[in-house]
Q: What sequence folds into this?
């Protein structure tokens, strides 16, 4: 019996080691039980991005999260953003990837919502749309939705529609969320869901 | 003819094994990330048609315009794959000589690094007690350590295992502890976080079969340069030996490891292509059939041939001048030279082998470095003297399969063994030989590095 147990332990060791060792705590899934799961990639410290519930992600401090819609590039994605007093706003980078953003400074289409207003910028940081009637307010949920369809990107913040913007940027699986604020800031992204533009 | 066929079949078998093992290994040691892009080259055609009425219409007049939009997409997808290391440490072979693990006249006799085994006992399990300073040894095969994020952000903690490890404290199985797939937790403190890294490592290991033991260890590691590492280690083994005798054995030793690659935790986020290298070439093995240009029987009807086998050959670039001066070491080097004599096919065999033989050379990259010429001198000092002077043309022909053409001269002193595997295979009296040779080599799991790959030529790390 003891030999059997020792044999099992010996045989199990490489599997245990490789499964623990190759697991990546910086990545997790939300909407995992739905037909449109989203993979979240934490690009900050371990505790800075966490799965708040099945459809929500909470970001704390200076960090970055990549919401990935696996194998789907042309999507409609919607979420509700709520931040605390310490948060100054947040940025969304669309039609780019984390590697492109970090290593090649390809910003993609950028949506900035802060206490001054809302700006939508193209890849050259030219302003596509700007308004100060929509602002970030702590504790007030803001519904954000966007759609990438071919060369068109449409963005909706609250009840206001922006675009469609025509762009030559390729559509990607990634949506990058960057909170603007100091270490005490917190941003909750809830009710995140997406669907493919073309099934 | 049969010998040539056997060599050809050996080459084919090695190629197949190479392909399988490389594919499997790559899956374990490499993390792949993929980005998918959908490019839309054309989307929605707008046709604008003006149908203005003819004649005079004044300065301000209505314009009749028809805009037709037609949605037609022309798209293609592209992917970008990036490859990152998935491990903190991957080591093919590690060995250490252990001090005072038993009475000095009961020593195993592996020498300072635990690999200098008596040739009469080499590759044999029949080890006789002898008198030596380093009474025991530790050997570890195929070690891998993965990052463990449980305790800190940067994974200085690791979880790992080895295919096998052996603690031989004395020349008896009652004082040997062997573990297959032992599980280890290690914590590293980087005393120097630039290559070559200097780390202080604490380890806790558990072995289940065939011995059951707990190993508490600490080591001061220096490396790696081209996969070469040296370390001082200490620890205590508590458990049962191969013969199920209780063992509580502290140990202190000095070790060396080959093909032992370390990644600083920050390097896990650096793509393989951006990694820094210190060596011109590394490899799991190099096999080199050769033709004797001298030393054979000129009256023989078929040519005299030989074989050189290098295990874990490593050539490290010296950080001086233009870095072409290089030096390195093999784990083992075997040379077989068959003297074909007329009328007697079972002719005396020239044989030599070296443990950790040293070599020095000058690396001359050709073109962009896909080929290189390396004149070198190799000196083997244990268990007998063997040296060679040669020039090798290295060709980066196939990935992980470098080829080479060598023209050289080997001189080997004879030695005598009293028994063991070498005596069974080669004979008790190993004759000296001096031969010139022309060889064609094939690296197994080998890689040649170009000047641009060396860390000395990199201006900044990405």
A:
């Amino acid at each position: 019996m003891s030999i059997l147990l020792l044999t099992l332990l010996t045989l199990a060791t490489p599997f245990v080691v490789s499964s623990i060792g190759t697991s990546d705590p910086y990545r997790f899934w939300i909407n995992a039980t739905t037909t449109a799961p989203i993979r979240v990639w934490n690009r900050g410290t371990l505790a800075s991005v966490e799965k708040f519930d099945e459809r929500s992600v909470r970001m704390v401090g200076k960090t970055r999260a990549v919401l990935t819609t696996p194998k789907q590039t042309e999507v409609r994605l919607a979420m509700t953003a709520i931040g605390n007093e310490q948060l100054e706003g947040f940025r969304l980078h669309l039609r780019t990837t984390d590697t492109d953003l970090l290593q090649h400074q390809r910003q993609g289409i950028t949506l900035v919502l802060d206490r001054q207003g809302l700006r939508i910028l193209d890849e050259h940081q030219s302003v596509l749309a700007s308004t100060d009637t929509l602002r970030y307010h702590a504790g007030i949920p803001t519904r954000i939705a966007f759609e990438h369809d071919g060369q068109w990107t449409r963005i909706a913040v609250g009840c206001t529609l922006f675009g469609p913007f025509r762009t030559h940027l390729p559509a990607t699986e990634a949506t990058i969320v960057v909170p603007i604020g100091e270490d005490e800031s917190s941003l909750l992204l809830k009710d995140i869901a997406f669907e493919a533009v073309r099934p | 003819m049969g010998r040539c066929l056997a060599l050809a079949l050996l080459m084919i078998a090695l190629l197949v094994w190479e392909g399988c093992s490389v594919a499997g290994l790559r899956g374990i040691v490499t993390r792949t990330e993929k980005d998918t892009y959908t490019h839309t080259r054309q989307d929605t055609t707008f046709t604008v048609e003006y149908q203005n009425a003819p004649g005079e219409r004044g300065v301000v007049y209505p314009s009749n315009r028809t805009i037709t939009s037609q949605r037609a997409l022309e798209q293609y997808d592209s992917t970008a794959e990036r490859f990152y290391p998935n491990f903190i440490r991957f080591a093919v072979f590690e060995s250490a000589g252990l001090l005072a693990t038993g009475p000095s006249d009961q020593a195993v006799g592996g020498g300072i690094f635990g690999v200098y085994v008596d040739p009469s006992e080499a590759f044999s399990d029949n080890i006789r007690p002898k008198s030596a300073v380093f009474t025991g040894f530790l050997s570890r095969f195929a070690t891998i350590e993965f990052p463990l994020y449980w305790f800190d952000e940067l994974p200085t903690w690791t979880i790992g295992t080895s295919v096998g490890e052996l603690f031989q404290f004395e020349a008896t199985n009652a004082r040997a502890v062997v573990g297959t797939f032992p599980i280890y937790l290690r914590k590293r403190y980087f005393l120097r976080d630039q290559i070559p890294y200097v780390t202080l490592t604490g380890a806790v290991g558990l072995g289940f079969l065939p011995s059951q033991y707990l190993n508490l260890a600490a080591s001061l590691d220096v490396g790696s340069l081209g996969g070469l590492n040296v370390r001082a280690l200490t620890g205590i083994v508590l458990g049962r030996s191969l013969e199920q005798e209780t063992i509580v054995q502290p140990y202190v030793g000095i070790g060396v490891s080959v093909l032992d690659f370390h990644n600083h935790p920050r390097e896990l986020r650096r793509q393989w292509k951006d990694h820094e290298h210190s060596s011109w070439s590394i490899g799991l093995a190099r096999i080199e059939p050769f033709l004797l240009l001298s030393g054979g029987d000129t009256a023989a009807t078929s040519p005299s041939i030989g074989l050189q086998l290098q295990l874990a050959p490593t050539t490290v670039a010296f950080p001086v001048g233009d870095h072409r001066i290089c030096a390195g070491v093999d784990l083992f080097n075997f040379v077989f030279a068959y003297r074909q004599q007329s009328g007697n096919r079972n002719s005396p065999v020239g044989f030599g082998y070296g443990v950790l033989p040293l070599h020095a050379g000058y690396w001359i990259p050709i073109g962009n470095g896909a080929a290189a010429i390396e004149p070198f001198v190799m000196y083997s000092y244990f268990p007998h003297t063997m040296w060679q002077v040669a020039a090798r043309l290295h060709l980066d022909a196939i990935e992980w399969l470098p080829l080479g053409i060598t023209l050289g001269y080997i001189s080997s002193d004879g030695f005598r063994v009293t028994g063991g595997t070498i005596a069974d295979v080669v004979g008790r009296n190993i004759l000296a030989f001096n031969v010139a040779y022309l060889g064609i080599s094939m690296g197994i799991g080998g890689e040649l590095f170009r000047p641009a790959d060396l860390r000395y030529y990199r201006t900044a790390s990405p």
About this structure: Residues 104 and 248 of chain B are 18 Å apart (CA to CA). Residues 276-457 of chain B form a domain with the Porin fold (CATH 2.40.160). The radius of gyration of chain B is 30 Å. Chain B has two domains: 85-269, 276-457.
